[in-house]
Design brief:
The complex is a heterodimer of chains A (113) and B (112).
Chain A: E1 5-7, E2 10-13, E3 19-24, E4 31-38, E5 42-50, E6 53-56, E7 65-71, E8 74-79, E9 88-95, E10 103-104, E11 108-112
Parallel strand pairs in A: 2-11
Antiparallel strand pairs in A: 1-3, 3-8, 4-5, 4-9, 5-6, 7-8, 9-10, 9-11
Chain B: E1 3-5, E2 10-14, E3 19-21, E4 24-26, E5 30-38, E6 45-49, E7 60-61, E8 72-74, E9 83-92, E10 101-102, E11 106-111
Parallel strand pairs in B: 2-11
Antiparallel strand pairs in B: 1-4, 3-8, 5-6, 5-9, 7-8, 9-10, 9-11
Classes of the chains: A mainly beta (113), B mainly beta (112).
Chain lengths: 113, 112
């Protein structure tokens, strides 16, 4: 298994543009998580899914952020419109069982100028 | 409420010195505790889980329920241990959620 796959690895966009981040979890994992990492705030859980259903989106900063998981092998995190303060590394992670821990993707480094 | 506290943002030690990265938690039920490591500009990797009581790369961590701590220790630090270390907690048992709550991380710098 290639692990959790995220794309793109880097994204530079202008303020106001729509940004879509993609994640492919490990096959068979039934939980998927989106995290944001910044120097100021560390790792923040944005949203997580169980069996493709959003369970907790309380970490999503505002309505500009949305996430979907149309099937067990794909998830997207969309920011529309993007702002400079959204610049961060966005990690996706998947898990089979919570006490096994998560497997993280390589992250998408987003820069909004 | 679930909370993980890592009081040190930076820990600098010399090669060969002992290392202890502190982690305290707050959780009303039975927690699962983890340590993750992130080397420079890489993905987070699971280092160890309290439930498995294992030693990885010479690191160990013991869950102390009385002190609500899960400190990470290594007797002799190596330069390649330099990285960001995150302590994390999730719930266990019926009704517990899957989500991991992370501490703010401690940057370990091992000097030659």
């Amino acid at each position: 298994d290639a692990g959790v796959i995220q794309s793109p690895r880097h994204e530079v966009t202008e303020m106001g543009q729509e940004v879509t981040l993609r994640c492919k979890p490990i096959s068979g994992h039934n939980s998927l998580f989106w995290y944001r990492q910044t120097m100021m705030r560390g790792l923040e859980l944005l949203i997580y899914f169980n069996n493709n259903v959003p369970i907790d989106d309380s970490g999503m900063p505002e309505d500009r952020f949305s996430a979907k998981m149309p099937n067990a092998s794909f998830s997207t995190l969309k920011i529309q419109p993007s702002e400079p303060r959204d610049s961060a590394v966005y990690f996706c992670a998947s898990s089979l069982r919570p006490n096994y821990g998560y497997t993280f993707g390589s992250g998408t480094r987003l820069t909004v100028v | 409420a679930q909370r993980v506290t890592q009081p040190e943002k930076l820990l600098s030690v010399f090669k060969g010195a002992p290392v202890e990265l502190k982690c305290n938690y707050s959780y009303s039920g039975s927690p699962e505790l983890f340590w993750y490591v992130q080397y420079s500009r890489q993905r987070l990797q699971l280092l160890l889980r309290h439930i498995s009581r294992e030693s990885i790369k010479g690191f160990t961590a013991d869950l102390n329920k009385g002190e609500t701590s899960f400190h990470l220790k290594k007797p002799f630090a190596q330069e390649e241990d330099s990285a960001m270390y995150y302590c994390a907690l999730s719930g266990r048992g019926g009704g517990a959620t899957n989500k991991l709550i992370f501490g703010t991380g401690t940057l370990l710098a091992v000097q030659p």
